[in-house]
Amino acid sequence: MAFDEILALVHAAHDMIQHIATAIEEQSTVANKINQNIHGIKDIADQSAAHVGQSTEATNALSRLAEQLRSEMNRFNV
């Protein structure tokens, strides 16, 4: 092989390595964004679970108040 051919192959290999390195950086960036989004989704899911618990407590409180009101109203039956 002539020196020029070897040099051309080395340059081609270098270019391929550069493309691979760029692709790896891009994939890493995307993976980090996906990770951030997953954490965001987890936080929203946690907040939703907390709100469901609060809604359940509020519903139970309203149910107790309705029962108390019914008891009070029964006292006025004629």
From TrEMBL:
Lineage of the organism: Bacteria, Pseudomonadati, Pseudomonadota, Gammaproteobacteria, Oceanospirillales
Domain T-SNARE coiled-coil homology: 1-55
PROSITE patterns on file: T_SNARE
Keywords, in A-Z order: Cell inner membrane, Cell membrane, Membrane
Presence of the UniProt keyword Transferase in the record: no
GO cellular component term of the entry, any: plasma membrane
Keyword field contains Endoplasmic reticulum: no
Principal place of residence: membrane
Cellular localization per UniProt: Cell inner membrane
Membrane topology classification: Multi-pass membrane protein
Family statement: Belongs to the methyl-accepting chemotaxis (MCP) protein family.
Name of the protein this chain belongs to: t-SNARE coiled-coil homology domain-containing protein
